[in-house]
């Protein structure tokens, strides 16, 4: 995982290079140099604690469609995450068990193996943790994971499937249900599209109009500031100024941080032709309307993301080019999951800097990205960035969450115990610092 986070950060900083270098009118920007920033990885990450095996993914797929996980025996994950709709459901906000619309739209589930947080507000840290959310939510599946596991234990087919998936310990437990569901979802990789052929070097894979849309996306329109990398998401949280009929504070509520109010996770733009309507509340009906929002629809308010373009003007032709480009990130026919890439190595590659205690945060990167210190030493986080950050350590041995760390704020954090810790940012979870804490030196 750490290596992939760093890869994501590297791609992001590559993407950053392009900003501000937008081509002037009539000038063809050098699009070719963007190819590496959008290259598909050749391997999907999987956690060491829950490797993906074909048997486990097959069990997870069966559980995903199994209505026995719900309280009334009538709802499965696939009721809302419908495979033929790219695992979304085609409506703005689906009615919950009580008949009233749920607060948020059902997101598609492509490429979540690369996800760093889950749900629109990022409140679940892993897919394993995420699964109990919908099962036990009274408005979604109104179930009880423990009771569901007990029901499955009476089914000889389920017993066999758990034996195959978990040969070392075939118990039908809540944890195994969660692990199998997560493993299945990690296999949902969106297929290659025409855009990937362009990335691979085939200039003709995109029409002139689509290439003009890409030039706008990485240039004047500034979309790539947030929709970066091959999945077209920075995995961070932004308020993009959508009008809100019913207030939903998103990441601000999840972290209890006012500057993050109305910020939601940047969605991927893969396969979006198949997943209308759009945004966390399903309030935007078409891709055309989504593009229009960035030029005409931004509601000014103090929480707007610093990465959001201000005062963007787009001609009707430019809007059409952007929409045409977005369509090249989708399959021509309703997509089926791509074959699963082989497992990625998880070893770190970031050079460890011994004794460094000042950590910069410019451009959404911790610098250095890996340090070795002694127990009792204090790291000083210097927000030399233009964005609000939140320093976090989520570890059973040490949990820490700062308040909103505004640009210019300096924050000390002391590591009292030896061990390996990971520091992340609550706003930009792709930011990642490895801290190796050694026992204090003997005197
Ligand atoms: C009643 C409809 C419904 C059912 C049933 C349902 N979901 Fe969801 N799912 C949603 C909605 C709505 C969200 C967004 C909620 C939010 O962000 O607060 C969501 C979010 C998610 C996410 C987060 C995706 C992301 O991009 O962060 C995952 C993963 C997920 N669901 C998996 C599942 C699994 C696995 C099941 C079955 C155990 C399931 N869902 C059952 C409606 C549903
Ligand atoms: C400041 C970061 C940022 C920038 C810049 C940005 N987006 Fe977004 N985009 C987001 C976030 C965050 C959302 C989800 C917002 C929500 O639901 O509240 C989103 C949603 C979308 C969606 C809907 C996807 C879905 O599945 O719901 C589309 C399409 C989209 N953006 C396209 C674009 C285009 C085109 C541009 C450039 C004109 C752009 N974005 C610029 C952050 C950004």
UniProtKB/TrEMBL annotation:
GO terms for cellular component: cell envelope. InterPro entries: Cupredoxin, Cyt_c-like_dom, Cyt_c-like_dom_sf, Cytochrome_c_Peroxidase/MauG, Di-haem_cyt_c_peroxidsae. It holds the Pfam family CCP_MauG. Gene3D superfamilies: Cupredoxins - blue copper proteins, Cytochrome c-like domain. GO terms for molecular function: cytochrome-c peroxidase activity; electron transfer activity; heme binding; metal ion binding. Residues 55-182, 208-330 form the Cytochrome c domain. It is found in: Cell envelope. Residues 1-22 form the signal peptide. Keywords: Heme, Iron, Metal-binding, Oxidoreductase, Signal. Its main location: other. The keyword Calcium does not apply. This is C-type cytochrome. It comes from Salinarimonas soli. The lineage of its organism: Bacteria, Pseudomonadati, Pseudomonadota, Alphaproteobacteria, Hyphomicrobiales.
């Amino acid at each position: 995982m750490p290596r992939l986070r760093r890869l994501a950060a590297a791609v992001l900083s590559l993407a950053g290079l392009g900003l501000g270098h937008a081509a002037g009118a009539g000038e063809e920007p050098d699009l070719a140099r963007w190819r590496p920033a959008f290259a598909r990885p050749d391997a999907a990450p999987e956690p060491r604690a829950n490797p993906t095996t074909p048997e486990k993914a097959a069990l997870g797929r069966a559980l995903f469609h199994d209505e026995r996980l719900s309280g009334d025996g009538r709802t499965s994950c696939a009721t809302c995450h419908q495979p033929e709709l790219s695992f979304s459901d085609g409506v703005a906000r689906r009615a919950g068990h009580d008949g009233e619309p749920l607060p948020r739209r059902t997101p598609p589930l492509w490429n979540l193996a690369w996800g760093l947080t889950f749900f629109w507000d990022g409140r679940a840290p892993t897919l394993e943790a995420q699964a109990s959310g919908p099962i036990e939510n009274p408005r979604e599946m109104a179930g009880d994971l423990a009771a569901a596991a007990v029901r499955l234990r009476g089914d000889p087919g389920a017993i066999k499937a758990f034996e195959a998936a978990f040969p070392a310990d075939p118990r039908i437990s809540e944890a195994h249900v969660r692990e199998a569901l997560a493993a299945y979802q990690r296999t949902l990789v969106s297929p290659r599209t025409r855009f990937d052929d362009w990335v691979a070097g085939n200039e003709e894979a995109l029409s002139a109009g689509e290439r003009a849309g890409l030039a706008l996306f990485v240039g004047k329109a500034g979309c790539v500031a947030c929709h970066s990398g091959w999945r077209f998401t920075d995995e961070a949280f932004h308020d993009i100024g959508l009008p809100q009929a019913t207030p939903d504070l998103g990441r601000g509520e999840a972290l209890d941080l006012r500057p993050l109010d109305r910020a939601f996770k940047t969605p991927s733009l893969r396969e979006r032709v198949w997943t209308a309507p759009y945004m966390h509340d399903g309030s935007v009906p078409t891709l055309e309307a989504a593009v229009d929002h960035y030029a005409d629809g931004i509601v000014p308010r103090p929480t707007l993301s610093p990465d959001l373009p201000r005062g963007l003007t787009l001609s009707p032709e430019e809007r059409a080019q952007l929409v045409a480009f977005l369509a090249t990130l989708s399959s021509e026919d309703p997509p089926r999951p791509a074959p699963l890439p082989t497992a990625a190595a998880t070893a770190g590659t970031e050079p460890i800097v011994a004794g460094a205690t000042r950590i910069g945060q410019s451009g959404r990167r911790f610098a250095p990205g890996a340090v070795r210190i002694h127990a009792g030493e204090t790291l000083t986080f210097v927000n030399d960035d233009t964005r609000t950050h939140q320093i976090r350590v989520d570890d059973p041995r040490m949990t820490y969450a700062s308040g909103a760390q505004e640009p210019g704020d300096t924050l000390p954090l002391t590591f009292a115990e030896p061990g390996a810790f990971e520091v992340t940012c609550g706003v930009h979870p792709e930011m990642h610092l490895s801290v190796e804490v050694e026992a204090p030196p003997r005197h």
